[in-house]
Amino acid sequence: MKVSLDEGAVLKLSSLYAGGAAAAALIAPNKFQDTIYDTIVPRASLSVTRHHGIVLAGLSALAAAAVPADRSTQRAALKAAGATWLAQGVLNVYETADGQTKRNTYALAAANCVLGGLCLWSSRSRQM
Fold first, then answer.
1. What is the DSSP string of the chain?
2. How confident is the model over 6-48, as pLDDT tens digits?
């Protein structure tokens, strides 16, 4: 049995996931940080959190823009998104293992890696 994922649907999922995180980082950076960090974070880092939100918004927009595109463009976007989500997941694991973030950030790492894997899986070439 062949398992395949619709490229457009996975791009939409990636876009929604990034867009939700972007909104949280931009609208409520204090609460965004509170979900990740145990300690009080310096006020200057709120700017970094907002920048993080803008980058996530850009990833969301790029994924959404690629949904109606041709298959090769969708697959390229999925590869980029997949690599980004996997890298984010690895960074979440590192920072949590190092004690920089709350232990519940492992769940975030898992979600990021699963989404990254879905993006990469659906970007694979299939013969028609």
1. ------HHHHHHHHHHHHHHHHHHHHH-HHHHHHHH-SSPPPTTHHHHHHHHHHHHHHHHHHHHHHTTS-HHHHHHHHHHHHHHHHHHHHHHHHHHHTTSS-TTHHHHHHHHHHHHHHHHHHTS----
2. 899 999 999 999 999 999 999 999 888 888 887 766 655 888 8
